[in-house]
Amino acid sequence: MSTSEKPLHIDIPVKLTEEKVVFSVGALVFEGDLPASIFYLQLVVSDIAEWNSTAQVVAVFHTNAGHVRLHDGAYNADWNVATANPYKELLADLRKHGVQLELCGRLRRLTTGETGICRNQDQQECHGERHAARSRRVCENH
User: Fold this and answer.
1) Which of 2, 46, 78, 105 is most enclosed, with most CB atoms within 10 A?
2) Domain presence at residue 87
3) Which of 103, 68, 62, 108 shows the shortest CA–CA distance to 88?
């Protein structure tokens, strides 16, 4: 911040006693090597703890962001790497703080056998994604 800029001043600070927050994560946008959505989820969790408020925080991962929910073997196969899922510890920490992590219903249905949603390779689009096979791999490991 330059010396001519004044710092932000909040006249009436608000501390919530109850929060209900839903994050919709359709793609991972990064700040450095950390997905911004996970960074902001961590900030929300920190604020909730600081304020001693009760909260329900849900993060729903869609399409291309669904791979954060893969177990290590599936992550390695899907990304053709041997590094394991780099997000699993971040997500485990969020869960430990009460964040509910969900996979979008359309992706989940791929494994439950519900009809009408990308059940075969011929289907070209699934919830905005052109690779039904990749979506299926994400769901097989949910």
Assistant:
1) 78
2) yes
3) 68
- Domain of 62, in residue numbers: 20-140
Q: What is the pTM of this model?
A: 0.67
CB 103 within 8 A of CB 139: yes
For residues 68 and 132, give the distance between their C-alpha atoms in angstroms, rounded to a whole number. 17
Mean pLDDT of the chain: 77
Task: Name the percent of the chain lying above pLDDT 90.
Answer: 37
Establish if 31 belongs to a structural domain: yes
Q: How confident is the model at residue 83 (pLDDT cuts 50, 70, 90)?
A: very high
Total structural domains in the chain?
A: 1
* Rounded distance between C-alpha atoms, residue 76 and residue 10, angstroms: 46
98-126 core/surface letters (b: 16 or more CB in 10 A; e: else): ebebbbbebbbbbeeeeeebbeeeeeeeb
- Each residue of 36-49: pLDDT tens digit? 999 999 999 999 99
Q: Is residue 4 part of a domain?
A: no
User: How far is it, in rounded angstroms, from Cα 128 to Cα 65?
Assistant: 12
